[in-house]
Amino acid sequence: MSDHRIGIRELVELTVRTGDLDPATSNSNNTAQLGSQIHRRLQAAHKEDYEKEVYLTQDVAVNGQTYTIDGRADGLDTSGAIPVIEEIKTSARDWADVTQNTKDRYWAQARIYGHFLCLDRGFEKVQLDLIYYQTATDEVTRFSEVQTAPDLALFFEDLIADWADWLRMRSDIVTARDASIHGLPFPFGAYRKGQRELAVAVYKTIAAKTRLFVEAPTGTGKTISTLFPTIQAMGAGLIQRAFYLTAKQSTRHVAEHAMALMTEKGLEAKSITLTAKDVIRFADEPDDPTQNPYMLGYYDRLRPALKDMLDHEAALTRDVIETYAKKHTLDPFEFSLDASLFCDVIICDYNYLFDPAVFLQRFFAGPDPDNFFLVDEAHNLVDRARSMYSAELTDTAFSDLSRALRPKRGLGLTAVKGDLTRVITAFDAVAVSVDQTPLTFQKDPLDDFAGALDRLATSVHDWLSQPPDTRDEALVDLVLPVFFTVTGYLRIADLYNAAYETEIAIAAGAITIKQLCLDPSDFVANCLAKGRGAVLFSATLSPLDYYQDLLGGQVDSLAYRLPSPFPKENLKVVVTQNITPTYRNRESSLPDLVASLILMATTKPGHYLVFLPSHSYQATVLAAFKAAAPTLAVVAQEAGMDAAARAAFIARFTDDASPVVGFAVLGGIFAEGIDLGGAALVGAAVVTVGLPGLNPETDRLRDYFNAQGKDGFAYAYQLPGFNNVLQAGGRVIRGAHDVGVILLADSRFAGPRYAPLFPPHWAHATVAYGIDDLASQLTAFWAAHDALPAGDHPRKEDAHV
Question: CATH no. for residue 123?
């Protein structure tokens, strides 16, 4: 097999495209379970000598490169005079309603399979059977054609010639890119402490085809230190495409900035930032695709639009994509996906690789060693992955829909209403099976319940596939949310394994059933295996072996911790031994806590943040703080703050020179991802060790990991909470000349469970045994830095990203 691969379906999707963009076929809502069941049923009807899922592959030379083209024919029957190749397609649509473009793609796949089989087995001619299964009626239609080997060879040559034009667009980009990489300098005059070592480790990871887990403290310049060696590896031919995956919009902008810096130094590469479909959609796009000018004739305008954008732009940001999509009248989301095929660096959310509902099939339908993954803020991926691989349903959504549909007659809804009733009955049966117990967990999946959902998904899918003029679009808006939750649940049901439990909750007359993923590590590992390797990095990835375990670390994966690039004497970390704010002790510890917070804020007047584990506890501490120090200015995080309120909170630190103490929730929106360098923040207090509140789901996590022979309490409670502490503390020192204090207001931080977890740049932490001791330590620390007040420090180093 060559180093370059493309699937037969991908090849057809790229080349056999004319006319309208058809979301009904390009984004089919058929469940994978339904499609595979139909395939197996049709294949099982044949005799024993019938070959199923016949793997086919050929190497072809295109534009001076060798490509492996492969795929699987659904069936091959050689029992007759002429070999018969079957291609099975399923849809709720009547064949007459399938677009010609879609039919052409179906036949193109079958003809490529025929060509490959003629080459492999010496067939002189073959019969191609396109079997179309209409799920709405269970009708099977067979279309046949007989093709000779020479005719199939000519068809394939024409297809490859068209593909060569697309490849030439990409190869021209790659040629220019590789030429620009040779001699490309690091975009800064010098490496920061640890940057060169990290860059070397990333390059070696790519070369070794493995995974690297990196903890790199704030200020290391993680983004440029991972992207620069990745670009160098492209120039060396080790990889062809990098995916920069992140959970936050802000870090996507940092990656864009890093690419811009390298472009300024001479790099010629294409990067693209993918934006969610519902965000990038044009406001004037009608819901009906048959009336949408951005979809009608989409493929006829696509190639010139891509050429126009790729000829003139290097960084394909959201604004750039929207500009060219509007210019050429193309749907911006689909245009961005098509443009991504020609890009070297793809900046996107985690879900485009890891989420089974929305992952990019054009890149991740199978493994591709040309891809490499950079996973930023990787500590966030643990909870995100658990969420992606969990799914829940509540019976009230189905009951509400059933009541809404009850007065409706005809419109093809009879089957939908009947299957809705069956699902509601299935909910009740589950509730009876657990004796109406308020909360129950079980290891086994609910197969009968999933069966009822599957029937509903099929009937809704069939109804949705009817021509738009035969159904009420207002009803579609009612049905779709329930349909999407059902298909999401079924998708997870296909993945259910020993890492799952089923949670059944009965409260306030509602029944909620959840497939709870306790351990997503195998799923994450399988996703990472779709590329040559990966670097997963964060400022807080302690302990590294914990994250290696939960984020798909291979047995031979690498772990690397960088030292802080900043002088340790600029950061004072102190643990208050006299304060133990456990839930039982919160009232009794409140006076000492408030006194310590006031002392921190007044020893060196400036901007401070106080992080507390909940909104309710924050309200208690804030009230006591204001009563004890009414002259100190305060600002507090509120629940459900919108963008304007969040910006106003941050502005209080960045725009106002007068001292302020901010109160925020640990693990919340202000505890990570905000950059308050210099005088914007001179200290932070973290109150409690950050343990998540006791709850049944987290208890199940604890028990699951205990059963695996691991420290269940640490995995479920301690380590996730401590990461929130590290993130909050990381707000203080953002540049080489920043000076600040981290007050860890909980005696447990000095104990044997937490002190060993401190990262190296906190290793010099001290303990204060009372308010007088704390005053002495803070006074001495700030006195040592009085020569250069925090607000006067230069911040040139912060240009590193």
Answer: 3.90.320.10
